[in-house]
Specification:
Elements: H1 2-14, E1 18-22, H2 25-28, H3 41-44, H4 47-50, H5 53-58, H6 60-75, H7 81-91, E2 95-100, H8 106-110, E3 115-117, E4 120-127, E5 133-135, E6 154-158, H9 167-179, E7 182-186, H10 198-204, E8 208-213, E9 225-228, H11 231-246
Parallel strand pairs: 1-2, 1-7, 2-3, 7-8, 8-9
Antiparallel strand pairs: 4-5, 4-6
The protein binds adenosine-5-diphosphoribose (APR).
């Protein structure tokens, strides 16, 4: 394992434009459940009943009960060493941009600044009838919540299955991938598009792909370096190796 960590550190140090793509796995050690796999959320809940516009229209109360549960989980969670390690790589000037599929705010709370949230932000509500939107710091008191401006139904500010990613976020993510000569892919199964295609864009123009995951994923077959293990354990080790090599 140490060899792959050293390989990853060397790729990071040699890179001119390193970016990162993260998924639910980077927040797993903060106690936020992932979606797929043996203990994933989609094992217990059916995404088409909770994470689609149709589900919301059919039963906004049920959908909001589920999102309130997830909001409470996230508000009670803390960034883990993996989030802090990525923020440190940004502060060292090595990580130029972070693309996350996660709707939690753990990257921001760990200090990451240059990032885009491809799948939206669970701590934002959006009105389904007017252009009202707002950040929230606790789950809505009334379920389902109503717009304070027009009385319409408020929805979570996340991208549901079947919905398109906000164009500015999508454009920024792929523009960053076009510039990258290396990408850290952390804690994602890589099966959801278009996020899952981002590592291929970097690979496609000769960039390096470093993957950190406890299991193989849809990305592993294009990874130049596969560090098998928990992000919260591996990423801090990689940052320490990078800092030790920076002195050389
Ligand atoms: N460290 C690193 N990787 C981990 C850890 C960990 N501690 N724990 C789990 N993983 C890995 C799993 O092996 C898996 O490959 O994290 C990945 C999580 O995969 P998913 O649950 O599919 O999450 P993600 O890839 O982020 O899903 C993408 O799908 O459900 C939608 O919108 C949702 O943003 C989400 C998108």
């Amino acid at each position: 394992m140490q060899d792959t960590l050293i390989d990853a550190s060397k790729i990071i140090l040699k890179s001119n434009y390193l970016i990162a793509l993260t998924g639910a796995g980077i927040s797993a050690e903060s106690g936020i459940p992932i979606f797929r796999g043996k203990d994933g959320l989609w094992r217990k809940y059916r995404p088409e009943e909770l994470a689609t516009l149709e589900a919301f229209r059919r039963n906004p109360k049920l959908v909001w009960e589920w999102y309130s549960w997830r909001i409470n989980l996230i508000l009670g969670a803390k960034p883990n060493p993996a989030h802090y390690a990525l923020a440190e790589l940004e502060q060292l000037g090595l990580l130029k941009f972070l693309i996350t599929q996660n709707v939690d705010d753990l990257h921001e709370r760990a200090g990451s600044k240059k990032l885009v949230k491809l799948h939206g932000d669970i701590l934002t509500v959006i009105c389904t009838s007017c252009d009202y939107r707002n950040k929230i710091s606790e789950p809505p008191r009334d379920i389902p919540p109503k717009c304070p401006r027009c009385g319409g139904l408020l929805r979570p500010g996340v991208v549901w299955f079947g919905e398109s990613i906000p164009p500015d976020a999508l454009e920024r993510a792929f523009a960053e991938a076009e510039k990258a000569d290396a990408i850290l892919v952390i804690g994602t199964s890589g099966v959801v598009m278009p996020a899952g295609a981002i590592p291929n864009v970097v690979k496609g123009h000769g960039g390096y792909v470093i993957e950190i995951n406890v299991n193989e994923s849809a990305i592993t077959n294009i990874a130049d370096c596969f560090c098998k293990g928990k992000a919260g354990e591996i990423l801090p080790k990689i940052v320490e190796l990078v800092k030790s090599m920076m002195g050389d």
